[in-house]
């Protein structure tokens, strides 16, 4: 390239996109907007299960995540490959995730591309072969940011010592929600009503051995309605799985609850989360969205990442879904409602800190990208 000649900077983002998971879509949305905020003259491409939908929603390029030829072609033409947020490096939900995501980064390094883990969550990693792969590829990349201290310890315990590991925050903390006008129009289309006179409780469940706990969760929701005249709204974060699980809980309730009937844009879910008085649930990004709006939380810990986040924002845990006790759960929810002012004070401070750290991911990525372009 001739001196003084400018080239389009290109970024490839790898993650769990196009599957209808609100949390992962929020991560991609935040990555795209944050990077463009720092550098408008970049071309961003995402690997997606539904490339056309991803292109339309985020105004970026997208390619099919299961096409090796398309993936390698995109890696070859890019400047920076990002492993984009979320709990990608774990083998609890699937043994295919770690080899898939690491293969992309391995190819990128072999093609002399800059590579970054962008606010990743790490673990649990149970299989020895996956641990070895993470160590090999992890020591090849140029920069690692993680969304919590536990993920940094996991990387270090797996033998990652070459690139710097920086604790930041989940990328979603950089997002803004839709405004009230758009939000209320959205609720009208969904036929969901919320009233200011009744406590609004957002409930997030997912499929995770909940057979023993569905009745307890349903009874706790009934208790909140009977004792506080609460407005219970189920917030499915992945369709259709969370929606079906929510319906199973609702079938066990004696009282009436509402549910979001279809996939919503992350900004819409973020806005609705802000209209809650309490969010009770399992999904990490349901809790993150609550924290971003200073809404008190009670978490159900199906995964260590949920416990890590609750500790970071100083919010209570109801324990593991399979170990719930109805009386203890109702008491905890009652305390969360009664102590809402204190929780809001804590969350006000925490969300500001985490928003700064979320933006730091993008700043570091752009610094790395600029270095990549200087070396071309």
Textual characterization of the structure:
The protein is α/β, with parallel strands linked by helices and 376 residues long. The protein has 14 helices and twelve strands. It has a seven-stranded parallel beta sheet, sandwiched between helices. The relative contact order is 0.13. Residues 1-5 have low confidence and may be disordered.
Overall average pLDDT: 93
Helix content: 40-55%
| Cα-atom radius of gyration | 21 Å
Return residue spans where pLDDT drops below 50 for at least 5 consecutive residues: 1-5
**Helix tally?**
14
- Helix-strand topology string: EHEHEHEHEHEHEHEHEHEHEHEHHH
Number of DSSP strand runs: 12
The helix-and-strand class reads alpha/beta
Give a quick summary of the entry.
Helix content is 48%, strand content 16%. The chain contains 14 helices and twelve strands. A seven-stranded parallel beta sheet has the order 3-2-1-4-5-6-7, sandwiched between helices.
Task: Quickly list its features.
16% strand, globular, alpha/beta, 376 residues, 14 helices, five-stranded parallel sheet
Secondary-structure blueprint:
Elements: E1 9-14, H1 22-38, E2 42-48, H2 51-58, E3 61-64, H3 68-77, E4 80-89, H4 97-110, E5 114-122, H5 128-138, E6 143-146, H6 149-157, E7 165-167, H7 180-190, E8 200-204, H8 214-228, E9 231-234, H9 241-251, E10 258-259, H10 266-274, E11 278-281, H11 284-292, E12 297-299, H12 304-312, H13 326-338, H14 340-374
Parallel strand pairs: 1-2, 1-4, 2-3, 4-5, 5-6, 6-7, 8-9, 8-11, 9-10, 11-12
Helix pairs in contact: 1-14, 4-5, 8-9, 8-13, 10-11
């Amino acid at each position: 390239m001739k001196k003084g000649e400018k080239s389009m900077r290109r970024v490839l983002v790898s993650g769990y996109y196009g599957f209808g998971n609100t949390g992962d879509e929020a991560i991609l949305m935040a990555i795209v907007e944050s990077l463009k905020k720092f550098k408008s003259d970049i071309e961003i491409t995402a690997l997606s299960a539904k490339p056309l939908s991803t292109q339309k929603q985020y105004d970026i390029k997208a390619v099919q995540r299961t096409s090796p030829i398309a993936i390698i072609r995109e890696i070859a033409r890019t400047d920076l490959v990002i492993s984009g947020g979320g709990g990608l490096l774990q083998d609890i939900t699937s043994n295919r995730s770690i080899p898939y995501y690491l293969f992309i980064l391995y190819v990128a390094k072999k093609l002399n591309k800059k590579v970054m883990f962008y606010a990743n969550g790490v673990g649990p990693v149970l299989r020895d072969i996956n641990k070895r792969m993470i160590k090999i590829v992890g020591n090849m990349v140029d920069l690692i940011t993680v969304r919590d201290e536990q993920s940094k310890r996991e990387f270090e315990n797996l033998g990652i010592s070459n690139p710097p590991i920086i604790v930041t925050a989940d990328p979603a903390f950089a997002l803004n929600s839709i405004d009230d006008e758009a939000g209320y129009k959205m609720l009208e289309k969904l036929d969901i009503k919320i009233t200011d006179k009744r406590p609004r409780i957002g409930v997030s469940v997912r499929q995770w051995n909940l057979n023993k706990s569905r009745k307890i969760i349903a009874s706790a929701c009934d208790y909140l309605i009977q004792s506080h005249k609460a407005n219970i709204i189920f917030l499915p974060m992945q369709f259709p799985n969370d929606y079906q699980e929510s319906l199973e809980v609702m079938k066990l309730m004696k009282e009436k609850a509402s549910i979001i009937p279809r996939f919503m844009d992350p900004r819409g879910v973020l806005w609705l989360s802000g209209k809650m008085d309490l969010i009770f649930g399992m999904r990490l990004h349901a809790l993150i969205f609550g924290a971003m709006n200073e809404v008190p939380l009670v978490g159900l810990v199906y995964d260590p990442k949920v416990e890590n986040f609750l500790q970071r924002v100083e919010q209570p845990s109801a324990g593991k879904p399979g170990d719930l006790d109805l009386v203890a759960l109702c008491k905890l929810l009652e305390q969360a409602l009664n102590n809402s002012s204190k929780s809001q004070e804590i969350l006000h401070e925490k969300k500001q800190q985490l928003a700064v750290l979320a933006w730091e991911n993008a700043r570091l990525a752009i610094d790395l990208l600029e270095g990549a372009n200087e070396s071309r």
